[in-house]
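quick one, 398 residues, struct below
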Amino acid sequence: MSAPLEDIRVCDVTQNLAGPFCAQILADLGATVIKVEPPGGDLGRLWGPPFWGEDSTLFLSANRGKRSIILDLKQQEGMDVLKRIVTSADVFIQSSRPAAASGLGIDEASVRVWNEDIVHMSLSAYGQKGPMSDQPGYDPLMQAYAGIISVTGQPGGPPTRVGGSVVDFGTGMWAALSIISALRERDRTGKGVALETSLMDTSLAWVSYHMMGYMATGEVPGPRGSSLGAIAPYRAFQTLDGYVMIAAGNDAIFSRLCDALGLVDTAEDPRFASNSDRVAHRNDLDAIIEGATSQISTGELLERTLRNAIPASAIQSIADIVDDPQVAEAGMFQTVGHPELEGYRDVSLPLQIDGVRPRATRVPPTPGEHSIEILEELGFDGEEVDRLFDVGAVSKGS
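---
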């Protein structure tokens, strides 16, 4: 069961992060994925530094498990090759703006003429309809548009983007989930399915409880640093040598936290009797707790929280977590035999099937690495292959 999609063929005509990450999930689950890149290659390859070898680490994080062919879809010969790929595919993924997809002939209606049973996924910035549907969108733009940045960072501070590309990767996740659901539907009905998702949809989903809170109360939420408006104490507290994130999510945990910090009076204070009371008196409570945590080291505070079953964590850096023993035990970082990059490793799919973490066996391809191989599989003879390269409809990349 580590490769449940091993009989599925995917045509990935996407760039940047959201679409490629979707296709990488499918590849990790066993699908055969052909990545169709434009002349010059996926623009995401250039998004660096940092680079690892010739490609950006942004590109490498979203493109393992695929074979690459470079096609000029503005030439009829390039579209002819794409048509052959689509004819034998189960899934087609594209991330062009709606008008551009239609003009290029990779929208759902056009592709379905070639393969009526295909599952067609359209990813876009703002959706397929509406006044902004043909505007471009990138992760930070969508974080800004959908209000994510408005609730991120320190109160009174400058606008702060969430540190990870949560919109791009989240959209890729939703797209992959819907594709797998559509394949199940196709198994049941025998019919193809038209799917769509957008960066805007994902952005709104990430702040859904903020949206619902505003609709319920009319109060506009703002940035709260490391805290959560609905729970207290629930934030990073300063120690002698750093910070520790503490999440006292219920009355019992709060009581144990007070015991661990020697705050007997605080535990019995009526201002802090329930979570609602603690939220109402958050500033007073946070000051009391930080008065205690700031007198001890991070290590000592973590020992106390662990001993008293209090959810807590140090604020780790990326360097800390790469070498973390818990992460190593989980097998999330896997060393891969890369033909050019010594010590290459990447981040695995965050799930296990019957105790096995699915992952693709191919490292991210170089641009056009498999162009000839794919053409031969599609039935083009040597003379036809040479002509496609001669007219520039297909290329091998740099």
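The domain at 234-315 is CATH 3.30.1540.10 (formyl-coa transferase, domain 3).
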